[in-house]
Amino acid sequence: MKEEAEVNQNFNEYLRGKRVALVGPANVVSGSSNGDYIDGFDIVIRLNKSFEISPDRYKDYGSRTDVLYHCLYPFDAKGGGKAIMDMPFIQKQSYKYIIGAFPYSGNMQRYINKFRNLNKQQTPFTLLDAAVHKQTHQGCKGKPNTGTVAIFDLLSRPIDELFITGITFFRTAYYKGYREGDHSLRQVQSKFSKDSHTCFKNQFQYFKDTAAKDERVVLDEYLSKEVSR
Fold first, then answer.
1. Whole domain around residue 100: which residue ranges?
2. Contact at 8 Å (CB) between 18 and 160?
3. Who's near 155: CB < 8 A, 6+ residues apart?
4. Above 60 in pLDDT, residue 191?
5. pTM of the model
6. What is the model's pLDDT at position 189?
């Protein structure tokens, strides 16, 4: 779509030369006291259900969200959450951009169309580049998650630095309150099939072999240890 192509170009210019923090919902950020460090980046990007950060988490996770990468699934079971289709709520967040994490194909078409029709570019929206998703899918040997595609999409753009925190490739649990119910690692992992667990391992290995070696990437303490193993 022409409008989204323009948004994509504008997003590139928005990112050009910027220091970017990509903050996931993993519980390893809790207790880090990295909030001020995160908020000090030029642009702060979050994922899926990280719509609002409660004040009690500012100290660790930071308070800002400039850009949201979202799967566009409007239900909790898939990690998206129904709030993504609540336009008054979304507009209240004052995001600079929302990026759809998956290409326009298969079952995703219905959710993308629904969001497009509701949003009407009130918040600038585009899908991430289909070629980036395809390459990431091939590298991971399976469908990558939102955090993984966000990393590779951002590295395909003209950023100066990418700090990655709170993304553990499902090696740890979410922070309490991110999703409904039990947030233990066992419960989080039980939501996924055996094939999904294989895909998580592949995603981490692909990340370790490629993105983690990009000179623009800075890893948090957890990922630094995992990558060095």
1. 2-228
2. yes
3. 162, 211, 214, 216, 217
4. no
5. 0.93
6. 58
The CATH number covering residue 31 comes to 3.90.1480
Tell me the H-state helices in 98-182. Answer: 108-119, 130-140, 146-155
> How far is the C-alpha of 123 from the C-alpha of 65, rounded, in Å?
13
50-54, 121-125, 182-186: least confident range: 182-186
Q: Give the total number of structural domains in the chain.
A: 1
Residue 46 has pLDDT above 80, yes or no: yes
86 φ, ψ (degrees, to nearest 5): -95, 90
pLDDT of amino acid 186: 56
The pLDDT of 198-217, averaged and rounded, is 93
- Alpha-carbon span 96 to 81, nearest angstrom: 20
Under a CB-based contact definition with an 8 Å cutoff, are residues 198 and 143 in contact? no
Q: Is the pLDDT higher at 86 or at 173?
A: 86
182's tokens: 């039990």
> Whole-angstrom Cα distance, residue 73 to residue 111?
6
* b/e map 51-78, b = 16+ CB within 10 Å: bebeeebeebbbbbbbbbbbbbbbeeee
Identify whether the C-beta of residue 12 lies closer than 8 Å to the C-beta of residue 45.
no
